[in-house]
Amino acid sequence: MLQRMLRPTILARLSINLGPSTFAHGEYQHQYNKYIEVLISLSQALNYDEAQFFHDLLKMPISQRPTFVFGLGNQLPGQKRIDFFRLFSVANSVLKDY
């Protein structure tokens, strides 16, 4: 996901002019889209900047990522925390498939 976010800026800095449609077909059918969608939903539930969320996840070993995200959710107040844990449970089942 981070590459999708950073690609336009990097290409522009390299003076490479490729429209979004250049990558659209490959990204539309990408096998990890469901994984990305679930991670985006977690970042939104945490009110975490999406790009920063993906960047922070990439900085740590895969084995530590669920604990990190769970810990962030555990800091939410009251009902938001309960709602987050429901979402985390569903998301975790999707993420384990990858």
What does this structure look like?
The protein is mainly alpha-helical and 98 residues long. It is built from 6 helices and no strands. It has helices at 2-13, 21-28, 33-45, 50-58, 65-74, 78-95. It is elongated, with a radius of gyration of 15 Å. The two termini are 15 Å apart.
Helix content: over 70%
Biggest sheet architecture: none
Runs in which pLDDT lies below 50 for 5 or more consecutive residues are none
Cα(first) to Cα(last) distance is: 15 Å
Number of helices: 6
Series of H and E elements: HHHHHH
Structural class: mainly alpha
Condensed summary:
The chain is mainly alpha-helical and 98 residues long. It is 71% helix and 0% strand. The protein is elongated.
Please describe the structure with a list of short key phrases separated by commas or semicolons.
single chain, 98 residues, mainly alpha, 6 helices, 0% strand
Describe how the helices and strands are arranged:
Layout lengths: L1 H12 L7 H8 L4 H13 L4 H9 L6 H10 L3 H18 L3
Helix pairs in contact: 3-6, 5-6
